[in-house]
Amino acid sequence: MSPRPVPTLFAFGSNGSGQLGIGHDEDVSVPTPCIFADYTPSPAPTQTQVPRVSRIVAGGNHTLVLLDDGRVYAAGMNGDGRCGINSNSNPNSHSRFRFEGVTVVDEEEKDEESGGMYDVFTGVAATWEATVLVARRRAHEGEGGGGGVGRDVVFVLGTGMKGELGLGTEMTQAQVGKIRDFPPRGLEVVSIAAGMGHVVVVLSDGAVYGWGASRKGQLGGGLVGEKIVWEPKRIEGVPFRVTDAVCGREFTVLCGDGEKGEFVVLGSLGDKWGILAGTPAAEDVKGYLKMDASWHGVYVHQKDMSVLAWGRNDRGQLPPGDLRSAKEVAVGSEHALALLDDRSVVAFGWGEHGNCGPNTDAQGNVKGTCNRVPLPEGGFEVVGVGAGCATSWIIAS
Q1: Which end of the chain is more exposed for a tag (fewer CB within 10 A), N or C?
Q2: 3-state DSSP helix/strand/coil percent for the chain, to nearest 5?
Q3: Where are the RCC repeats (predicted)?
């Protein structure tokens, strides 16, 4: 089988477990080419054949890249299998220093024609030590037309000491686990997000479910008393149809109709960083394009391309005054990147690992201003940005 083309991706920042996928485990402060196990065959494919990066998510020491053709690549710590199983590598190896394709095998489907193997996914999220993957299972006879489009399947890989695997009481580790009977039959996953220790899923009927740590209210007030939610439970009381979700460290933002300014923040009990107290009225964010969350802040990308944000700012995490507009914003654990109109990239926030570029203050911060990121030479055009746990990404074409 011929190798399939992969995107052009550059990374910088924290890399102690090889999570940047650049071939080693040293931190870097300038964008460095990522290495993919697949490579572009010769002659090079046309631009339309090269897949684009749909999403980049990061745990504490691993990274997952979802492409628009459904492939997922993973790099970083893999001792518990959180980076997935690939036939060309040892799934028990401690770390991967390059991006390798993620494949999961559903043991219950091993006798079927596909062998139970999934290597195409529709969604991906990462907690601190785990990976969550959404795949589409083809229907069998008697299931929606025999061989037609089937139901979504949610797989979990890695470690989750606070229920973030969603596999049931006291299930804290799985190389490949499948969450049974979820989502409910007839519904699809339209959005999936994760914080350090909790996962939230939005379904096609506008309902939202969650599992994992819940004691700070990140899964809604009704589940605070459980402290740990070991399997998916519906989050009740949302006053609108949910369309998307993003997660901070111990809170969740549920989004509705952006034109109406619909959103709600769940969690962060105690509100040390003013995440609840600073929440603007719906009127002030009407028409928002997208919402993001850092560990301790919320970021609203507005229709006029400005960024409204609130929360922790002791290291310059919130947008500085010189960030007037942005084509795209990527929010990491305690820093953010912005792609500007001229295709340049700037960063701000906590950058001790080099994730805000080479120029920081004595405390490792880019505070009160934007730091222009030195872009790689070679005729690349920047088309997107990504950010994770002290990691940063430049997507090029």
Answers
A1: N
A2: 5, 40, 55
A3: 7-69, 152-205, 206-258, 305-342
Given a cut of 70, is residue 315 above it in pLDDT?
Answer: yes
Q: In what order do the strands lie in the sheet with 189-194?
A: 189-194, 198-203, 208-213, 228-234
Let me know if 206 is exposed, middle or buried by CB neighbors in 10 A (0-12, 13-18, 19+).
middle
Strand order in the sheet with 72-77: 53-58, 62-67, 72-77, 95-101
Distance from C-alpha of 237 to C-alpha of 222, rounded to nearest angstrom:
9
pLDDT at 386 over 60: yes
Q: From CA 72, how far away is CA 51, in angstroms rounded? A: 11
The encoded tokens of residue 150 equal 């089937």
pLDDT digits (tens, 9 = 90+) for 225-273: 999 999 999 999 999 999 999 999 999 999 999 999 999 999 988 999 9
Banded pLDDT at 43 (limits 50, 70, 90): very low
Sequence-distant contacts of 318-325: CB under 8 A, at least 24 apart: 319/348, 320/348, 320/367, 320/368, 320/369, 320/370, 321/368, 322/369, 322/370, 323/348, 323/370
For residue 323, pLDDT beyond 90: yes
Q: Pseudo-torsion of CA 281, 261, 297, 213, nearest 10°? A: 110
Nearest-angstrom CA–CA distance, 286 and 213: 31
The answer to whether residues 22 and 376 touch, using CB atoms and an 8 Å cutoff, is: no
Q: Domains of the chain, with CATH numbers?
A: 8-41+49-141+149-396 (2.130.10.30)
